[in-house]
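hiii so um. not sure if this is the right channel but i have a protein structure encoded as tokens and i wanna go backwards to a sequence. like what aa goes where. can anyone help
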């Protein structure tokens, strides 16, 4: 009389097969692999921004074919340097005083509801030494929240938003907007704004 293997053995084998298949088929970022580009950019981009040393020249060198844009707002016009790098859209907002904003509004003639305007390469060259106030990075590809955790560790603070969560890393001056377990936006600001 032959014995049949117990059903539990079949269940274990089936479960192991499914897990192995998932491990092979799911992309690296979904398995929580560190994001190589973030680790590389820590020194050349994030740390200088955190320490308030990042200038237009440095960001312009980091971003091939960067463009300067004037963005009208209620508090006066803002200047944004935009470009792409390794599948990420990068936008740096220039640090401007109230006086500089007022002067820029007068020279450009923009009003708060006007559309954004591209600025000349000559103006970009004139602003070479200007400091960058904040950086926004948004991925053009899927970046899982687990990959961010693998790169930066666990967030010190998690805040519930109307859509998703904000993960705050004050030690890097970084806040991540997470929605549906995917990274939507990274924002890097000087340490004085997050370490209070």
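sure thing!! here u go:
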């Amino acid at each position: 009389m032959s014995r049949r293997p117990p059903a539990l053995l079949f269940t274990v084998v089936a479960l192991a097969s499914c897990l192995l298949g998932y491990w092979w088929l799911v992309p690296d970022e979904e398995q929580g692999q560190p994001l190589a580009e973030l680790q590389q950019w820590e020194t050349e981009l994030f740390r200088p921004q955190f320490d308030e040393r990042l200038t237009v020249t440095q960001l312009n060198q980091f971003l091939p074919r960067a463009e300067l844009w004037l963005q009208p707002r209620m508090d006066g016009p803002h200047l944004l340097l935009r470009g792409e790098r390794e599948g990420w859209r990068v936008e740096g907002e220039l640090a401007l005083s109230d006086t500089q904003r007022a002067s820029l509004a007068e020279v450009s003639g923009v009003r708060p509801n006007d559309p954004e305007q591209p600025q000349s390469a000559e103006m970009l060259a004139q602003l070479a030494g200007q400091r960058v106030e904040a950086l926004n990075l948004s991925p053009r590809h899927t970046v899982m929240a687990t990959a961010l955790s693998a790169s930066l560790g666990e967030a010190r603070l998690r805040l519930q938003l109307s859509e998703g969560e904000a993960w705050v890393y004050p030690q890097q001056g970084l806040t991540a907007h997470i929605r549906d377990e995917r990274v939507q936006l990274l924002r890097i600001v000087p340490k004085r704004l997050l370490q209070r």
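oh and Residues 18-26 have pLDDT under 50 and may be disordered.
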